[in-house]
Specification:
The chain is an alpha/beta fold and 112 residues long. The chain contains two helices and eight strands, in the order E-E-E-E-H-E-E-E-E-H. The strands form three sheets. Strands 1-4-6-5 form a four-stranded mixed sheet, covered by helices on one side. A two-stranded antiparallel ribbon has the order 2-3. Residues 20-112 form the FAD-binding PCMH-type domain.
Length: 112
């Protein structure tokens, strides 16, 4: 598998407020589970730590790293909706605004 296609060098991460920032060695933007497996194997082989990032809304430096980062932005789908049980399964990269629109269309909402 060619990870160069989904790897970004020189990426500057900054959280929403600009209070935390870092520059990982590589940012990966995978599209498939197999690509994630390959990234994990590479990180293990190269003895690199991995941080997974979403939209950068965290008020902490939790996802900052100088090693590898994985963006889940291409994993942003709703997988399952059960209106009877009020249960929704989504992928890790979904934005809350998208999720809220989908929930509203299905007469559901996030708890307060």
């Amino acid at each position: 598998m060619d990870l160069e296609r989904i790897a970004v060098a020189g990426y500057q991460f900054k959280n929403w407020s600009g209070t935390y920032q870092c520059q990982p060695e590589l940012l990966f933007i995978p599209e498939t589970i197999d690509e994630i497996r390959e990234i994990l194997y590479l990180a293990k082989t190269e003895k690199k730590r991995i941080r997974v990032i979403g939209c950068g809304n965290s008020p902490s430096d939790l996802c900052c790293s100088t090693d590898y980062m994985i963006s889940m932005e291409r994993f942003a789908n709703v997988l399952y909706i059960d209106q009877q049980e009020c249960l929704v399964t989504v992928q890790a990269g979904i934005h809350l605004d998208k999720l809220n629109r989908i929930l509203e269309k299905n007469e559901l909402a996030l708890p307060m």
